[in-house]
């Protein structure tokens, strides 16, 4: 327990002494307990000073978690001179009951089906040399009613069989106009992630310069890449299966005709 309090000293200026002591008890209980982590289970393993009411008071306390994560990483885990890559991904946790804030029916990649639970989007810093990932920011994903309705309508539209269209004539349709591809309309999901990403970069400042943001294949599209570029980062992701990707032409070019790229 003394070692845990010593490791928590970097965040002492951010929280009160009472909260620091409660946090030490909770960490001790989570490290020694077995099975699923619950408030009741933590109180049984936390020992003296870690009653169920104490755990409730801690969970009802508003804490600056983003600053806490960053201070712990900077004081205990940061390796000066090493290269870091920022990564982001959404995590789904199953949850029963009806009173939990943000509970929704969310698709789980592990279960391969929608399940009742909570969704969290986490940013992590990856040390390239040590090949070690450290969570640096975790935010709960709460979708609005408009976003749920739009997602449901999109899913139903996919199920409806499209009518066979008549074969269009070759060439550009008459009356069509050029579109400005630089103007991108971000989805509500990308807007949320952009706000969290900007807040994290502002918190870190110039102490840890980052170049890349790694995301999964769900974000392998132009709007997501545009959003990342607006924050002076480059995206590392997996392209969609139907992406039109071609390698540069390396053969001999003809004297006549258009140039092959």
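Q: What amino acid sequence fits the structure above?
A:
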């Amino acid at each position: 327990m003394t070692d845990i309090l010593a490791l928590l000293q970097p965040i002492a200026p951010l929280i009160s002494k009472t909260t620091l002591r409660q946090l030490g008890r909770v960490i001790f209980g989570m490290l020694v307990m077995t099975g699923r982590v619950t408030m009741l289970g933590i109180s049984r393993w936390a020992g003296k000073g870690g009653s169920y009411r104490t755990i409730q008071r801690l969970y009802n306390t508003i804490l600056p978690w983003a600053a806490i994560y960053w201070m712990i990483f900077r004081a205990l885990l940061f390796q000066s001179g090493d290269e870091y890559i920022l990564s982001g991904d959404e995590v789904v946790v199953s949850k029963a009951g009806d009173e939990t804030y943000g509970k929704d029916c969310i698709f789980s990649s592990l279960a391969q089906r929608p399940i009742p639970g909570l969704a969290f989007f986490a940013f992590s810093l990856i040390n390239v040399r040590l090949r070690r990932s450290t969570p640096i920011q975790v935010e709960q994903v709460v979708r609005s009613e408009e976003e749920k309705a739009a997602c449901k309508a999109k899913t139903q539209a996919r199920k409806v069989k499209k009518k066979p269209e008549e074969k269009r004539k070759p060439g550009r349709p008459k009356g069509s106009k050029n579109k400005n591809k630089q103007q991108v309309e971000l989805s509500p999901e990308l807007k949320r992630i952009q706000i969290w990403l900007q807040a994290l970069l502002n918190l870190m400042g110039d102490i840890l310069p980052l170049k890349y943001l790694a995301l999964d294949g769900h974000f392998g599209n132009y709007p997501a890449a545009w959003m990342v570029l607006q924050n002076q980062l480059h995206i590392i992701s997996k392209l969609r299966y139907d992406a039109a990707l071609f390698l540069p032409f390396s053969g001999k070019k003809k004297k006549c005709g258009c140039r092959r790229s």
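Q: And what stands out in the fold?
A: The mean pLDDT is 87.
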